[in-house]
Amino acid sequence: MAWDTEGTKSKILEAAIQEFAKYGPNGTTIDKIAKLAKVNKERIYNYYGDKHKLFEHVLQNELIKVAESLPIKSFATEDIIEYAENAYDYHRDHPALSRLLLWEGLTYENEVPNEVLRKKHYNYKVNAIIEGQKAGKITNTLDAEYIAFLVLSLANSWFTLPQMARMLSPFDRESDHTARKALIAEAVKRLIQVA
User: Fold this and answer.
1) What does the alpha-carbon distance between residue 159 and residue 95 come to, in Å, rounded to a whole number?
2) I need a labelling partner for 128 at 20 to 30 A (CA). Which of 23, 119, 121, 177 fits?
3) How do residues 131-142 score in pLDDT, each as one tens digit?
4) Transmembrane region positions (predicted)?
């Protein structure tokens, strides 16, 4: 019988996403991930290395998925407000990503794994904003890097800080997505408004 390598890897990654999102890379073990995936832990070590290498792989895969789901080229021709709303929807549908990013920030004190490559990816977003600024659609009173950071923060803050959203926002129920998106759209509109 042939071994289903891809199926096993998929089970491992799904289990790792769940465990890392709940407990972070320091709060779980390869044993727990193997048990959840129903695979021998040696498979995990063979495919991904140690727990931190697996965490890096999981997060990198999740970042690739979001980049593929939310492609942008230029906010001179694309709508940055729609992009923010779509980013909100993505994080709503994939809440583990926000938690993985939080755990990454708590785990690594300085440079994170793949930081140089990730900066290049974020530069695509920054360049898309710069093009929007040149076209007069986005304010140039703020640096494009800050606008990119703030737009992404607005889009996923409901999922990175759910306790604060619950305490501070009237839109704290699962059914309030339309109201949340309208609020994000208004905030981004004001943020990018050309004077």
Assistant:
1) 6
2) 177
3) 999 999 999 999
4) none
